[in-house]
């Protein structure tokens, strides 16, 4: 008669299994009882218990990403990031001003002067978030491209202010639809292009994106070189452009445009600091308060500057502040990036609430300060 091994009592652990039986992490204990037991399986006329010995998982090895991010003292990283955002924000604002000046004679783009920067900037944001390593892997480069350049290249305040100064509701709705739909569409296209670039690098050139974090020294070098380039370019570019303007070699950009570009980093850095200290607060379900506050503050300041511009016609500084600080303070690309991220991770209702709060509150602010309410005409 075959001898059957008794199942151990509930408070007694069975004998340690042999190494051969632990290859799959399981052992089998047999019982001669006929009653069914949960989580058991029957082998012939015998009942088998499946039990698992789980050794405690080894402590995770510190990743190279964490080591690279931790190698920066927090406030030093914040200060250097502010400089990178300021320098790249200057470039983003300069690109926006040049685009708007280039299309000023075009009837369509003169009416929708924010369309080209917002759509192109959203496309670049979608591309950059796919092809640039994560922020904790390459902090200075990521923040300079996505926060500084794209954030300053696109402008939320110009869209809302232009929408609210329209003379008819049909024109206002047209601006609302075009200004809201096109950036999302172009962001998705940019993200798909980024996926294509990553696929080509992995399958054509044999350089998968996942290998980037394993080279912290190279990442530090890339960040350092890019940061130095940004700082030098931010210092020299305005000086060179102003010299060329004085010599009459550049006619697309005026001295007021240079002023607009030079003061833009103040708005970009303010937006970055708001996002650092207010975004992703667990007490508010990770509601991006920083981006929301930057956009609403940009709209408020822009509508005030517009009214002051209409009152003081010969003072160009109101225009400079409106298109410089306000344009760089508010952003469409970051807003679209957050909306698509919320929608992609299943927080669809949250995405719609965030979009409605951003647009509706901004419209209310701009509506209160609408120049037509105070008998001021807008050309």
Secondary-structure map:
Blueprint: E1 26-31, E2 40-43, E3 46-52, H1 64-70, H2 74-102, H3 107-111, H4 115-131, H5 139-153, H6 156-164, H7 169-203, H8 216-246, H9 255-278, H10 289-311, H11 317-323, H12 325-329, H13 333-344, H14 348-368
Antiparallel strand pairs: 1-3, 2-3
Helix pairs in contact: 2-5, 2-8, 2-9, 4-5, 4-7, 4-13, 5-9, 6-7, 6-10, 6-14, 7-13, 8-9, 9-10, 9-11, 10-11, 10-14, 13-14
Describe this structure in words.
Helix 4 crosses helix 13, helix 5 packs across helix 9 and helix 10 packs parallel to helix 14. This protein has 379 residues and is mostly helical. Strands 1-3-2 form a three-stranded antiparallel beta sheet, with no helix packed on it. It is globular and about 60 Å long. It has one domain. Strand 2 and strand 3 form a beta hairpin. The chain is 63% helix and 4% strand. Keywords: Cell membrane, Membrane, Transmembrane, Transmembrane helix. This is CrcB-like protein. It is a multi-pass membrane protein. Fluoride channel required for the rapid expulsion of cytoplasmic fluoride.
């Amino acid at each position: 008669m075959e001898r059957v091994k008794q199942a151990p009592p509930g408070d007694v652990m069975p004998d340690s299994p042999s190494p051969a039986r632990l290859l799959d992490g399981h052992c089998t204990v047999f019982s001669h009882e006929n009653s069914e037991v949960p989580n058991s399986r029957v082998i012939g006329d015998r009942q088998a218990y499946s039990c698992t010995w789980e050794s405690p998982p080894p402590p995770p090895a510190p990743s190279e990403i964490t080591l690279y991010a931790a190698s920066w003292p927090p406030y030093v990283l914040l200060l250097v990031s502010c400089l990178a955002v300021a320098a790249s924000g200057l470039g983003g604002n300069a690109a926006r001003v040049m685009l708007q000046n280039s299309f000023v004679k075009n009837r369509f783009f003169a009416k929708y002067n924010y369309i080209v920067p917002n759509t192109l900037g959203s496309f670049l944001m979608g591309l950059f978030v796919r092809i640039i390593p994560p922020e904790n892997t390459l902090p200075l480069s990521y923040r300079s491209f996505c926060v500084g350049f794209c954030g300053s290249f696109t402008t939320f305040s110009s869209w809302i202010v232009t929408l609210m100064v329209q003379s008819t509701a049909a024109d206002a709705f047209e601006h609302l639809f075009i200004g809201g739909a096109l950036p999302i569409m172009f962001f998705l296209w940019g993200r798909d292009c980024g996926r294509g670039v990553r696929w080509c690098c992995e399958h054509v050139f044999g350089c998968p994106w996942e290998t980037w974090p394993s080279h912290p020294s190279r990442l530090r070098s890339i960040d350092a070189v890019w940061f130095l380039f940004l700082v030098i370019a931010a210092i020299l570019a305005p000086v060179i452009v102003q010299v060329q303007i004085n010599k009459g070699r550049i006619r697309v950009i005026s001295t007021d445009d240079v002023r607009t570009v030079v003061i833009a980093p103040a708005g970009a850095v303010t937006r970055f600091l708001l996002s650092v200290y207010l975004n992703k607060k667990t007490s508010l379900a990770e509601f991006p308060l920083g981006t929301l506050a930057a956009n609403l503050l940009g709209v408020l300041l822009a509508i005030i500057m517009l009214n002051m511009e209409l009152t003081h016609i010969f003072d160009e500084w109101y225009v400079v502040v409106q298109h410089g600080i306000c344009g760089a303070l508010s952003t469409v690309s970051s807003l679209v990036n957050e909306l698509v991220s919320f929608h992609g991770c299943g927080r669809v209702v949250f995405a719609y609430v965030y979009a409605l709060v951003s647009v509706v509150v901004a419209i209310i602010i701009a509506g209160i300060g609408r120049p037509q309410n105070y008998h001021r005409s807008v050309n």
